[in-house]
Amino acid sequence: MSEQIFRGFLTCLMLIGLGACVPGGGGGGGGSDCAEGDLRPCQCDDGELSSRICDDQGDYGECVCSGGEGEGEGEGEGEGEGEGEGEGEGEGEGEGEGEGEGEGEGEGEGEGEGEGEGEGEGEGEGEGEGEGEGEGEGEGEGEGEGEGEGEGEGEGEGEGEGEGEGEGEGEGEGEGEGEGEGEFLSLPGPILALPFDAAAFGGFEVCFADSYADDIDHVAMREQCTDDVLLVGCRRTGVEDFQLAAMGLRDEVFRPVPDQSEAAHPHNGSQWYFGETYSFGFAPEGVPLQRNQCDTADARGDERLCWHVGIGSAGYRCGFETPFDDSYERVVMQRPGPLCVGEEVSCDGIDSDCDGRVDEGLECEPVEPVDPIGFEGPRVAMPEIEVFEMGFEPCYSDTYADFFEGGVMSAACDQGVLLVACRPVGDDELTLAAMGLRDQVLRPVPDEAAAATRHNGSQWYYGEGFSFGFAPEGAALSRNSCDTAAGQEDLRLCWHDGQNFGGYRCGNNFLNGDANWERIVYQRPGPI
Predict the structure, then answer these.
(1) 8 A C-beta contact, residue 166 and residue 86
(2) Coil, strand or helix at 123
(3) Which of 500, 497, 496, 470 is CA-nearest to residue 485?
(4) How far apart are CA 121 and CA 27, in angstroms?
(5) Predicted confidence band at 378 (pLDDT cuts at 50, 70, 90)?
(6) How far apart are CA 356 and CA 369, in angstroms?
(7) What 8-state DSSP symbol labels residue 215?
(8) CA–CA distance, 106 with 488 (Å, rounded to integer)
(9) How far apart are CA 197 and CA 241, in angstroms?
């Protein structure tokens, strides 16, 4: 399927809800009383999705089908030479025309060149074999092998055995098959009635699914959906196509926001919100939200999706529907980036419009790649200048005398990599520090003594209303609520979370209510 037809098909999907496209199937045309230029989705005999276009007579044309792996026809001309030996019997002398091998048998080799043009679905190169017919004159007959096989007509005279050379020209048609990559699906804003096949053809694969009867496992969802671009959608159970979906970069889709009624951030035509103990979903960009906990607003309600998160509840909405049972399904799909929405190109060193070229048509200064720098496990006495040289910037700080709330810190520190540290206020050296991927550093764990997540040489624990911190990998923990265990004490950091006092420790320093010591978090884009 050509790029133009694929884009037409995707456009048609967006217009189904407006009546400009009418779903249909089969491969034929037929009167439909349509407006010129209207698109109508259809399916080819091999299952390929395509579309029909309404002509100036108000009729939809044929479904444009070309085959799944790309087939094309082309014409070419070529010349070849061949030699052959043959034995035969004949009487008298005469002239005649015939097809095939005639009265003798022989073998020969020949070479030929030809050119052909073809169209196929996707992008890539294909190889194929072609058949052609040619005419030639010569004193011998034989069969040759080369880039093409064919039958010829010729005239010859002779008896007994003979050798001869002949030249001929021929035209032929051939078909070739090649494997190619489909276009990335890249649509802004909430999408109604999105066919699952369109998402799959656009590079997406399912990474998470459950029903609206379940209390969503948001930790598993984020652990399983790690590619650059996500598609979040809902559908009736047993129906393959999505009733509602939206897509965006993973870091934006899962970007935390405060647990407030209108808290959200715009990205790719939608407003996204995520709170580990509140709700997750999207709404159209520019409309008011009413998150309590899920979004209950009605304006453009068919384009709103919301799932309860971390509150032990099922539901909540898929458009106007608000099921709490298994009649509806939640689905998240993923694919590699980039997002590729729109046609804008900038000097960013990536194929931002997914056309196979980088920064095309622009005079961009070369950018030297920067190798990410990091370290594993807790580190003591680390100069802050090294933190800045690694590309980190502060995103959160307070003192050990202050009330600490993990939700506030996580909302302020939303980039891919975090460095968590402590030090005396005003010191240019961190007493203790550790770093890791944000999703692992802030991964919730149960409020249990030994509960932790192993990552990048440290054991991390995060429980809102309990404690946040790290210890060396392999060390025993005793969280009550902060970690009070002995052994490698200088490599342990813990902050009380959501409690009415500050503290607790920076290595061997126990600092409840101490305004002379600082808690500080730095961030930078990933990877580690």
Answers:
(1) no
(2) strand
(3) 470
(4) 17
(5) very high
(6) 20
(7) -
(8) 88
(9) 8
DSSP string, 375-408: --S-EEEEEHHHHHHTT-EEEEEEETTSPP-HHH
- What is the pLDDT at residue 183? 55
Taking only the tens place, the pLDDT of each residue in 41-65 is: 777 777 666 677 788 888 878 877 7
Element containing residue 6 per DSSP (H, E): helix 3-15
Beta-ladder partners of 522: 394, 419
Q: What angle do CA 327, 330, 332 make, to 5 degrees?
A: 155
| pLDDT recorded at residue 253 | 95
pLDDT score, position 259 = 87
Measured in residues, the chain has a length of 528
Q: Give me the half-sphere count of Cα atoms (radius 13 Å) on the Cβ side of residue 320.
A: 4
* Strand ranges inside 54-161, DSSP E: 59-60, 71-86, 127-136, 148-149, 152-153
Buried b (16+ CB within 10 A) or exposed e, 443-478: bbbebeeebbbebbbbbbbbbbebbbbbbbbebebe
Burial class (CB within 10 angstroms; exposed 0-12, middle 13-18, buried 19+) of 491: buried
| Phi, psi values for residue 489, rounded to 5° | -60, -35
Q: Which of 198, 242, 187 is nearest to 9 (CA)?
A: 198
Cα separation, 123 vs 351, whole angstroms: 15
- β-pairing, 467-472 vs 493-496, is antiparallel
Name the CA radius of gyration of the chain, rounded: 34
Range 229-256 average pLDDT? 94
Mean pLDDT of 92-109: 38
Quote the CA–CA distance of 500 and 207 in Å, as a whole number. 40
374 neighbors 457 (Cβ within 8 angstroms): no
CA 371 to chain centre: 24
Q: Closest Cα to residue 232, out of 259, 262, 270? A: 270
Q: Helix, strand, or coil here: 450?
A: coil
Classify 222 as helix, strand or coil. helix
250: Cβ contacts below 8 Å, ≥ 6 apart: 225, 226, 227, 228, 229, 230, 334
Say if residues 149 and 105 touch (Cβ distance below 8 Å): no
Backbone angles phi, psi at 278, to 5 degrees: -145, -85
Residues 6+ apart with CB under 8 A from 252: 265, 267, 268, 272
Whole-Å CA distances, 250 to 173, 230, 243? 47, 6, 21
Nearest CA-CA partner of 150 in 131, 169, 136: 131
Contact between 268 and 252 (Cβ < 8 Å): yes
Residues 419, 460: contact at Cβ < 8 Å? no
pLDDT of residue 338: 79
Q: Give dist(CA 350, CA 362) in Å, integer.
A: 13
Q: Cβ distance 270 to 244 under 8 Å? A: no
